[in-house]
Amino acid sequence: MKKVLTIIVACLLMMNASSVYAANAKTVPAVKTTAAAPKPITLTINYEKAELNPGPVLQNNTIYLPLSALSKMGITVIIGADKTTLTLKKQWNSVVIALGAATIKVNNETEKLAQPTVKINGALYVPSAILSKYFGKGVRWDNKTKVLSLIDFDSQLHLALQRNDLAYFGKLLNDGLNATETIDLILKYQQDAAWIQAALKAGADPNPYFYEAVISKQAGAVQALLDSGKVDLHSTPPIMGENSYLSQAFKIYTVYGYDSQGKRKSFKAPRSYEIAEMLVAHGLQATSTDAYFAMAERETEWFDWMLGHGADPNGETLKMVTVDESHNAIAFYDLLTAVDRPATQKLIVSQYMVTGWNPSPENMKNLEMLVLKYNASLSPLSQPQLDRLLYLAQSNNMQALTDALVAAGAK
Does one domain contain both 115 and 160? Predict the structure, then answer.
């Protein structure tokens, strides 16, 4: 009996222990798991880590920047009196944007905005695309590493040029620097052809700044641009009027640029046969207008060169020189101010006016060369004009020219 009682008690104890375990199992709460906090954005400005408070934010798959980031990129930020309107300015660009607006004003022109300006924790934020689209800044986002890279291309390009750091220039190009626009600054810093070649390799269009390369007489740059095979020598910028690139190689210019410290400077760019020869080697021929400019400036060698490289001795130009014999006066014009436009004038007539007014040795030599070496017809000249030239030829003991004038009817 005692043995049976012991077994019953043991069974009861086991049942009680199971009940307690079951009860405890019901009261233990389930373990809750939480998602990992988003990885903070690492910001770099011009390749150096930057700490901003508040910092950039990723929201709705858009990177938003605090206003301090814009200031760091050289953009002037003006907050309107209503605290919801922003005006962003950099050089010639002006952007006006309102909080939450779907449009934006860029230099007084309204455009649609993909993502609006927002307010986060009381601070105004703008979508990062504004930096790249309207101000030409570099914006690179690595979603895997959560690194946002901002690059002020303008200041960094100046820095690369001042340091003569071609490798850094290549890095900027690789990160999105506008290759075509770099050619302008490369020329202003008078860097060598390797810089032009790097820009061309990155996809630069050689045409927009070819004019600057020619007038600044940077032969290495001109050659590099021509070697691209993409320069259209017959399509010239409006600033050239009807001048050819050969006229630009002939003319003397004062050009503005930068020294190695980034300070503005000016330098005189002389005439360049080297560049003229490059242009001819790539298919450009001189025109009567090119020859006229050399003749008007009494540059005998250049006049000869132009006539020997395609200029028509019997051609005509816009009427750019006139003589008022009653008032004993001569007037010169350029292509933009040519008198009686679109009236034209034969090259030999222009030569007569210049020589008849000032029979200098250079002008007499040009007349002789035009008539004898290049066989310009004297028929466009009037009888009084022929007679005047005959008198000048005889006075200067120029027998061959005298004979040619007599043969043409001069008395």
Answer: no
CATH of residue 49's domain is 3.30.457.10
> Looking at the structure, do residues 263 and 158 belong to the same domain, yes or no?
yes
pLDDT at 24 over 90: no
| Tokens 């011009």 -> residue | 46
Strand-pair partners of 141: 148
Under 8 Å CB-to-CB from 98, ≥6 apart: which residues? 84, 85, 86, 117
- On the CB side of 58, CA atoms within 13 Å amount to 15
> In terms of pTM, does the model score above 0.90?
no
Q: Is 4 a domain residue?
A: no
Residue 258 domain-assigned?
yes
Specify if 389 maps to a domain: yes
Indicate the number of domains in the chain.
Answer: 3
Q: Do residues 107 and 164 share a domain?
A: no
Q: What is the 3-state secondary structure (H, E, C) of the chain?
A: CHHHHHHHHHHHHHHHHHHHHHHHHHHCCCCCCCCCCCCCCEEEECCEEECCCCCCEEECCEEEEEHHHHHHCCCEEEECCCCCEEEEEECCEEEEEEECCCEEEECCEEEECCCCEEEECCEEEEECHHHHHHHCCEEEEECCCCEEEEECHHHHHHHHHHHCCHHHHHHHHHCCCCHHHHHHHHHHCCCCHHHHHHHHHCCCCCCCCHHHHHHCCCHHHHHHHHHCCCCCCCCCCHHHCCCCHHHHHHCCEEEEEECCCCCEEEEEECCCHHHHHHHHHCCCCCCHHHHHHHHHCCCHHHHHHHHHCCCCCCCEEECCEEEECCCCEEEECCCCCCCCCCCEEEHHHHHHHHHHHCCCHHHHHHHHHHHHHCCCCCCCCCHHHHHHHHHHHHHCCCHHHHHHHHHCCCC
Range of the domain at 321: 309-407
> Does pLDDT of 329 surpass 90?
no
68 and 113 together in one domain: yes
Spatial distance between the Cα atoms of 230 and 222, rounded to a whole number of angstroms: 12
Stretch among 75-79, 237-241, 406-410 having the lowest mean pLDDT? 237-241
Q: How confident is the model at residue 39 (pLDDT cuts 50, 70, 90)?
A: low
60 and 175: one domain? Answer: no
First to last CA, the chain: 169
C-alpha of 210 from chain center: 10
